[in-house]
Every structure is written in C-alpha cells, then in structure tokens.
Write a structure and sequence with these properties.
The longest helix is centred in the C-terminal third of the chain and has 12 residues, at 133-144. Helices cover 33% and strands 4% of the residues. The protein starts with 8 loop residues before the first strand and ends with a helix. With 145 residues, it is mainly alpha-helical.
Length: 145
C-alpha cells in the first residue's frame, strides 16, 4: 500500500495563523504571504506567480513544448521537460513524442509508425511508404471525390 502523497502547496486556511516559520512564508517573486494565497512549498512561489509563469512560458521554469511547470526537468532538458524529449536521441519534439513516443526523425528511422496517425504497423508502413492501410485508404477515398 502506497503512502499518502503530500500536498506541494501551503494552504491559507491551514497555515499562517501561528507564529513561527510557517506563519512567515511568502512568495519570493511578489511578496504575497501564505494568508493571501497558496504558496508552493519547494520554490516559495505563490499561486498567482506560478500561473503567470505558465501563461508566459518562462524558460527556466516552464516547459517550452507542453507548458508544464517543472523547473528541475526544464533546466536539465534545456527548456523542455522529460515528456517532450525523445527517449532515444534526447532532442525536443513535443508534437511527435505525443504521437509516436519518439521524435519524428527517430520514428522515420525506425520505420514502424504511421506518419499520419502514429499507429504501430511495421509491415503496412513498409508497404505503403510510411503510412498504415487505414490512412492510405482515407487518402485515396478523398482523392476520388
């Protein structure tokens, strides 16, 4: 049985009423206290600053591909989180990774995935020059119209 996952936020309804270390928590960017808004424990950032960073996609804090707030992963991945980097070559390609699980160059080189829908069909892809049977048939039917 897994343990309970701790909440990464300090809540104004629970914290800030006592005198001490937790009562004096404030945002490092704007200075909001824990009584004014929720504060992210690890980075001492208030909820409003985190939302603003996500909206602006700030390079050192938010992934440039998917917009996820993950500072450690973004710094290690040169502006991209782990989910947007190709596991084979390490290059960022967010749209292709969601579709194939690899970047477009690695997916073409593997020759296993359909370039349109991302389905894994090695024999069909080899036969139809990069596309599965379903995608080829839909292209042919739209050409006839």
């Amino acid at each position: 049985m897994a343990g309970r996952r701790k909440n990464p936020w300090l809540d104004p309804n629970k914290e800030g009423r006592s005198k001490g270390r937790r009562g004096k928590r404030y945002c490092a960017r704007c200075g909001n206290t824990v009584r004014q808004s929720r504060i992210l424990k690890n980075y001492n950032l208030c909820e409003f600053c985190v939302q603003e960073m996500i909206r602006k996609k700030q390079k050192n804090w938010v992934c440039q591909g998917c917009g996820r707030f993950a500072p450690e992963e973004v710094k290690a991945g040169r502006g991209y989180c782990r989910q947007c980097l190709c596991p084979a070559c390490g290059q960022p390609d967010p749209t292709a990774i969601r579709k194939f699980g690899l970047c477009l160059a690695c997916a073409k080189q593997a020759g296993v995935f359909c370039l349109r829908c991302g389905q894994e069909a090695p024999a069909q892809v080899r036969k139809n020059k990069g596309y599965c049977d379903r995608c080829v048939s839909s292209v042919r039917s739209t050409d006839k119209l």
